Amino acid sequence: MLGHRYTHSFLETAVASVNAGLNLELSYGLRRNVFMHIPQALAMGNITLQMLRDRVRPLFYTRMRLGEFDPPAMNPYSSLDLSVVQSPEHRNLSLEAAVKSFVLLKNVRGTLPLRAQDLSGQHLAVVGPFADNPRVLFGDYAPVPDPQYIYTPRMGLEMLGANVSFTAGCSEPRCWQYSRAELVKVVGAADIVVVCLGTGVDVETEARDRRDLSLPGHQLDLLQDAVQ
Asked: Cα–Cα distance between 5 and 16 in angstroms, integer?
């Protein structure tokens, strides 16, 4: 609220927030956050002790329900290790969730889905800065996954049994340096081409917005060359 000039100080912001019913502050990175001014607001009579108790009560109730204060032995999840989390059943469920979350905007001539039995003897080219770079596949506010559990588009398509060739064209999403000759060489010899483009956290995150929706750097050139 302070940044949007709705209030003029941390103290005023704390008072307005508590009075509005807010009981939790996202203050990561602030040495002295807004709610640190609550004692001053209480002393000045801008908020009441009962109001503070009403705000705090659901927070601790939720933490208690989650078992945050229980001994570790009472936590049913404490015994789970990677043998369970990364079990075939869980990995298959993750794959099913990924498949069902795709949004297909257009499917000319029924090209998709690609089936392993149809790719025998086919030459498949996977190109673009997102084709085989695990680091750029996760957006803002995503956890930091273990690389050994990440499958890039190239890795996934190689599992179909096709003859797969690859070039990034540009090594990172900003795509400032683009190797057109390498891309044309790889794409020119392919029967099927999969182009993997996008932005990622290197290009845009919270507080780092973009002026337009254009592909960054030379990514559009890469796409047009692949189509040509």
From this structure: 13
- Could you tell me the end-to-end alpha-carbon distance of the chain, in angstroms, rounded to an integer? 50
Q: Which CATH class is domain 105-226?
A: alpha beta
Best CA proximity match to 219, nearest among 106, 124, 129: 129
Q: Domain boundaries in the chain?
A: 10-74, 105-226
Question: CA 210, 201, 157 angle in degrees (round to 5)?
Answer: 120
CA 166, CA 154: separation in Å to the nearest integer? 7
SS3 content of the chain, % helix, strand, coil (to 5): 40, 5, 50
Q: Which DSSP letter does residue 214 get?
A: P
DSSP state letter for 208:
B
CA-nearest of 13, 12, 7 to 27 is 13
pLDDT in tens, the chain (228 residues): 878 889 999 999 999 999 999 999 887 666 778 999 999 999 999 999 999 999 999 999 999 998 899 998 888 888 899 899 889 999 999 889 988 998 999 999 998 888 888 888 899 999 999 999 998 998 888 887 777 888 899 999 998 888 999 999 999 999 999 999 999 999 999 999 999 999 988 899 988 888 899 999 999 999 999 999
